[in-house]
Known about the structure:
This protein has eight helices and 19 strands.
Amino acid sequence: MAAPxxxxxxxxxxxxxxxxxxxxxxxxxxxLRFESSFVxxxxxxxxxxxxxxxxDAAYGLRGPDTxxxxxxxxxxxxxxxxxxxxxxxxxxxxxxxxLPRTVRENDQRVAYRVERVGRxxxxxxxPRANLYTATLLDISTSGARIHAHQDLPSGELTPGDRIVxxxxxxxxxxxxxxxxxxxxxxxxxxxxxxxELAEAVLEPxxxxxxxxxxxxxxxxxxxxxxxxxxxxxxxSLPPASLLLVSHDALLEAELRPVLTGIHPLIRLAPSxxxxxxxxxxxxxxxxFHVADSGLDERHRLRALAEVAQRKAPLLVLGTGxxxxxxxxxxxxxxxxxxxxxxxxxxxxxxxxxxGILRRHGAAGEAPLAPLES
Length: 373
């Protein structure tokens, strides 16, 4: 990674360019990710399209670990951001972000290469004006690697030669460019675009590469999650479960259809002995129900949370308690997140729980949350 950009005027210029072209972006926490796009800069605030629900924006993106990622020319930018709330710009619903203090750019000397390109047939002409076809092996914003469909005559292509190539990557993204041969190995040829691609081609290519990179991050997270499960959960242990620490049987009935699809849900009374026994089975997540913000309730649950946090990630779930108090408790108890529960928020709770499990089980990232319909 390159050195971080910290000058406010440089950061503002980068974000202004992204807004001008309505650039694609990813808003991500350790547990959830949302695809969005830039809208506008207003003073010290950045507006991005609100593709998620109000609850997702208010709770899912709240916290110190939210980051913004987006493509830019040959590379990608990433910045930690603070969500200020919902807003509007020119009649469009937006999420308001504080301008980041730092922006980090990937090292453009090592452009990300997409290897999952599907079947793409490339045509290229050599300095001797001979025309050949090849299969695209991988592609980046700065070059590509191809495999010729036939053996090339000796001396037909050597490093440093300039060629012309046509790469029909997508129906609406066709790359026609001059390129320099960087290396050859049998039928395989490495190319570098020279000159750099025109902006009209580079922008959609950069966006496409960025999305493929995000997909690869998710695939790697899933692989790590599966590998970690196999290592950490011997077959002699009972099936992994979600613990709900609560007296409320009605709450259990509401949560069961939402969470059982992830792991079995087990409710236990908020007592130290019951919790210690349940933790022996190595639950994957402990959900603490907070129905009262009084000092006695907080003190009692804190003692339980201190024991549980050493064994599993915690989620604070409140009924009749305001969101600010819940997040204060989550911070105090070192919980992964918090949510003010109501039945209409079932889908959000499910995504949040899945994200927490992925993060804590595999140190990976959560899947991209679906767009709000």
